[in-house]
Amino acid sequence: MKKFLRFWLAPLLLMALVFPVGNKALASHRTYEIFVAAFHRLFPHASRHAAGMGYVIFRKGGHFVTYGLMAVLFYRAFRGGRRPRFQPARLLAAGAAAAAYGFLDEYLQAFVPNRSGSPVDWAVDCAGIALALALAGWRTRLMDAGRRPSPGSRSLSRALSLKRSFDIALSLLGLVLSLPVSAAAALAVRLEDGGPVLYAQERVGRNGRTFKAFKFRSMVPDAEKGRGPVQAAENDPRVTRVGRVLRATAMDELPQLFNILRGDMSFVGPRALRPSELEAGASAGPEAVGDIRGGRERHAVRPGLTGLAQVYLPGDTPRRRKFRYDLLYIRTRSFWADLELIALSFWITFRGKWECRGGKL
Question: How many CB atoms lie within 10 A of CB 52?
Answer without folding.
Answer: 14
